[in-house]
Amino acid sequence: MTHSFAGKRIVVGVTGSIAAFKVAGWVSALAKEEALVDVVMTVAATKFVSPLTFGSLSGRPVYEDMFSAEQEGTISHIGLSREADCILIAPATAHTIARLAYGLADDLLSTTVLAARIPVIICPAMNVQMYGHPATARNMKILKDFGYLVIEPESGLMACGEEGSGRLPEWEKVAEYVLREISAKDLDGQRVLVTAGPTREPSDPVRFLSNRSSGKMGYALARTAFRRGAEVTLISGPTTQQPPAGVELIKVTTAMDMHQEVMARYQDKSVIVKAAAVSDFRCATQSDQKIKKDRSSLVMELEQNPDILKELGALRDHDRQLLIGFAAESSNIEEEGRKKLLGKGLDLIAVNDISSSTCGFEVDNNQITLIDSSGVKKLLHTSKIKTADLIWDHVVTNKMLKPARP
Ligand code: CTP
């Protein structure tokens, strides 16, 4: 099950802040992903961005006035929320937040929210002092108590020239929260630990041993687990991947660092996925100074790193924790996979076919074979994000998850 915006109906409520112009880009992004976007604007919002702009980007009518919308017979405030998958209010001004907190129903947006029985996501954006005022804090708490999801604003330089909290976040982050709200939460209550990326084993202050892992597969697993409702911790070696929204990110460098972080955090997790390409060896000694080329050859002694996955296989609680490993193989995929499944005490292994240059290391696609006690399943050759969803689908449909915490 791929989590996407295609075919989803999203009501975007735009209120009167300069950040409204940013939301025009959000509506455009949603429309490109084939969502049906119904934009509802407050009167103040129309002073910042024209309804024509939003209508041109969504390709659908834009709603402003409660009475004209109903008179035209297009759609009612009840109908708007009844047919939608969620309401996203962005930017949400202090004024709108206060009106929603007090249940006012004096315009189309507030009545639409009041009549809604679908997820409501609020993205506050305002001057830093207004955001910090106790009235705003109290009103936001009321909205959270209603069960609305409030995505906290970010810090930075604001349009008013002041610096602090109150800026609208970027769409890449908000999109993840919206996807989570409109998706089937089949990992709800699960606490997922994912490791990703390569490790680096330094030999001196400027050099290290590493491998070609980009971290894409592990990041895709973390991102999709969050979308499906899990609480996710990602322990990552050095990568250029963007931190996934909503995910706790722990950055590490060496295999020993990764070992330490995993051991400190695995115990309360219900699913552990080791997608990282951990260096099997590290330099036995590290020079404090840069190693010079004043010799004709150089022999470096390596010593073995702990096999973190194997250790987890022995330590984890089988009744409470699902353990998933990865392997990179260029031949005898099934045989090698089965050997690691048994040898490391795993529930499931995802074997990566690295024999072709179109999948595996550094590229966006993967060809994975899943092996567990029930058999072998070859997944489609597809993007890493879709592959991650297919792995979670396998775990869910085969009822491999352990009971979620109460
Ligand atoms: N792994 C680990 N700690 C290590 C090495 C590997 O946790 N020191 C984990 C990886 O995160 C991955 C799996 O083990 O989930 C890969 O197993 P490994 O035996 O290292 O696979 P390959 O690198 O493919 O092994 P080999 O080179 O022996 O085929």
Describe this structure in words.
- The protein folds into 2 domains: 174 residues, Flavin prenyltransferase-like (Rossmann fold, 3-Layer(aba) Sandwich); 188 residues, 3-Layer(aba) Sandwich (Rossmann fold).
- The strands form 6 sheets. The chain has an 8-stranded mixed beta sheet with strand order 13-12-9-14-17-18-20-21, sandwiched between helices.
- Helix 1 runs parallel beside helix 3.
- The two termini are 26 Å apart.
- It is an alpha/beta fold and 406 residues long.
- The longest helix has 14 residues.
- It is built from 15 helices and 22 strands.
- The chain is elongated, with a radius of gyration of 25 Å.
For the biggest β-sheet, the strand order reads 13-12-9-14-17-18-20-21
Number of domains: 2
Compute the number of strand runs.
22
Q: Provide the list of bound ligands, each named once.
A: cytidine-5'-triphosphate
Mean pLDDT rating = 93
Please write the CATH class name of the largest domain: Alpha Beta
CATH superfamily of the largest domain: CoaB-like
Low-confidence stretches: none
The number of distinct helices, counting runs of at least 4 residues, comes to: 15
Q: In this structure, how is the largest beta sheet organized?
A: 8 strands, mixed
Q: Whole-Å distance between the termini?
A: 26 Å
Structural class: alpha/beta
How large is the share of residues in beta strands? 15-25%
